[in-house]
Amino acid sequence: MLKSSETTTAIEVKNISKQFVLRHTRSIKEAIVWLLKGRKGDLSEKFHALRDVSVEIGQGEAVALLGLNGSGKSTLLKHISGVMLPDSGTIRTRGRVAGLIEVGAGFHHDLSGRDNVFLNGAILGMSEEDIREKFDSIVEFAEIGKFIDTEVRFYSSGMYLRLAFSVAVHTDPEVFLVDEILAVGDEPFQKKCISKIQDLAAEGKTLVVVSHDLDLVSRICQRGILLEGGNVTFDGPIEEAVATLRR
């Protein structure tokens, strides 16, 4: 967490790196030969998702993380959210961080929508009193209606989205993270989500968005950070970032 005196910086990512071990599926014959050779040679390889990445995002900025599949943008967002920890480097954030990294993350399939509102709200830092106060508004925004007392295992992906998004935005976060979540759900609700995100931006909240919808991020964000092969290759005005990616 950033010190309160550092009022202009909401997110500080400093020299972070992350690699994953990719296991390759081999035939039984290849595996036996590998074992007979005393396990010489590696049946896996390392994938560098992020390479010494440093980014600073100011309070109230709306920033898009852009890049092709496998560029590292979603991995970077998960590090900012705290879902992942870096192999090296540091990440610091200021204020409450909330968002949608995966649809229904934090939801328990065996619990009702009502119970999951309280569970997910608590995970995102809301007190029980806050959740009770905002409960009706959360349900109304999510358009769940009578299904609020149904186990979420029976929800469609769209219902998951609506409830997860509604809980997240009602936490009143200082930093809001969104990863391709607007690609799920019907068009009217997508527009509703976009409108809410624009409201958050207008209120001076810090937004970090990952999306392949370049027209959308051009409307919401002012700054674009372009990643390629785990490296930051561009950081500047969103129009230039989008133009660079489209080349």
UniProtKB/TrEMBL annotation:
Record bears the keyword Nucleotide-binding: yes
GO cellular component: membrane
Keywords assigned: ATP-binding, Nucleotide-binding, Transport
Any Pfam family matching the protein: ABC_tran
Domain ABC transporter: 11-245
Keyword ATP-binding in record: yes
Top-rank taxon: Bacteria
GO MF assignments: ABC-type transporter activity; ATP binding; ATP hydrolysis activity
Protein family according to the UniProt entry: Belongs to the ABC transporter superfamily.
Designated name of the protein: ABC transporter ATP-binding protein
Organism: Arthrobacter globiformis
Lineage of the species this protein comes from: Bacteria, Bacillati, Actinomycetota, Actinomycetes, Micrococcales
